[in-house]
Amino acid sequence: MAEKSRIEKLNEYAARVKAGEVLTPEEIADRDRLRQEFLAEFRKNFRAQLDNTVVQYPDGTKKSLKKD
C-alpha cells in the first residue's frame, strides 16, 4: 500500500473512532497492521537520516551519527 493511502486509511479509522463509531474486529486488525507498517517505514527513514548526519564540534572535529 502506498504511503499516502496508508495514512489516509489510518486517518479514516481515527476519525470514525473519534466520532464514536465502533470498528469491527477486521477493521481493528487492519488498523493495527497499517500502524505497524507505518512505524517500520518511519523508523527506517529516520535511521537513514541519522546515518547521513554529521555533528561538527567547536574544536572543528566532526562525528557521524551513524550507528556502529
Q: Could you provide a short overview of the structure?
A:
The chain has one domain (3-64): Orthogonal Bundle (Helix Hairpins). The chain is 63% helix and 9% strand. The chain has helices at residues 3-18, 25-51, and strands at 54-56, 62-64.
Structure description:
With 68 residues, the protein is mostly helical. The protein has one domain (3-64): Helix Hairpins (Orthogonal Bundle). The protein is 63% helix and 9% strand. It has helices spanning 3-18, 25-51; strands at 54-56, 62-64. A two-stranded antiparallel ribbon has the order 1-2. Helix 1 crosses helix 2. The model has no long low-confidence stretch (mean pLDDT 92).
Summary keywords:
68 residues, mainly alpha, Helix Hairpins, two-stranded antiparallel sheet, 2 helices, 63% helix, elongated
Layout of secondary structure:
Blueprint: H1 3-18, H2 25-51, E1 54-56, E2 62-64
Antiparallel strand pairs: 1-2
Helix pairs in contact: 1-2
Return the CATH topology. Answer: Helix Hairpins
**Average pLDDT, to the nearest integer?**
92
Portion in beta strands: 5-15%
Query: Which runs of at least 5 residues are low in confidence (pLDDT < 50)?
Result: none
Give the CATH class.
Answer: Mainly Alpha
Protein structure class: mainly alpha
| Tally of discrete structural domains | 1
Q: What Rg, in angstroms, do the CA atoms define?
A: 19 Å
Separate helix tally? 2
User: What percent of the residues sit in helical stretches (DSSP H or I)?
Assistant: 55-70%
- Strand arrangement within the widest β-sheet reads 1-2
> How would you describe the shape?
elongated
In angstroms, what separates the terminal alpha carbons?
32 Å
Oligomer: single chain
Count the E strands: 2
Order of helices and strands: HHEE
Report the sheet with the most strands, covering strand number, pairing sense and barrel closure.
2 strands, antiparallel
If classified by CATH, what would the architecture be?
Answer: Orthogonal Bundle
